[in-house]
Amino acid sequence: MKITANRFWSTERVRQACIDNDLYTKGSNEDYIKMFDMVRELEPTNENLYLVAKNIYEHSAYQTITNVMFILENDAVITTFEIDGHDDI
């Protein structure tokens, strides 16, 4: 049996996570757009989660990168599963 996890995120989910957690309060609209470009271009691997979280951290008050990673993982990333190539088993 082969189990595959598929991870997705979107600019809308990242934006909502920022709003809900009072993040990106020190960034400009241009900074925000650049961060969203990263989300659109990168898959949500641990390394890419770090890159986006670091950007958010640099434009937020009273945060740590690891906390922003936790927020993104729990609020912005969606994980689906397949068993032997099927999602309906």
Please tell me about this protein's structure.
The protein has 89 residues and is α+β, with helices and mostly antiparallel strands. The protein has one domain. 53% of the residues lie in helices and 13% in strands. It is built from four helices and two strands, in the order βααααβ. A two-stranded antiparallel ribbon has the order 1-2. α3 (46-58) packs across α4. The protein starts with a strand and ends in a 6-residue tail after the last strand. The model has no long low-confidence stretch (mean pLDDT 95).
Q: What gyration radius follows from the Cα positions, in whole Å?
A: 14 Å
Output the strand order for the largest sheet: 1-2
Amino-to-carboxy terminus distance: 11 Å
**Fraction of residues in β-strands:** 5-15%
Major β-sheet profile: 2 strands, antiparallel
- Output mean pLDDT: 95
Summed up, the domain count is 1
Gross geometry? elongated
Query: What proportion of the residues is helical, as a percent range?
Result: 40-55%
What are the secondary-structure elements, in order, as H or E? EHHHHE
Unreliable stretches covering 5 or more consecutive residues = none
Separate helix tally: 4
The helix/strand class is alpha+beta
Number of strands: 2
Helices and strands in order, then pairings?
Blueprint: E1 3-8, H1 11-20, H2 29-41, H3 46-58, H4 65-75, E2 78-83
Antiparallel strand pairs: 1-2
Helix pairs in contact: 3-4
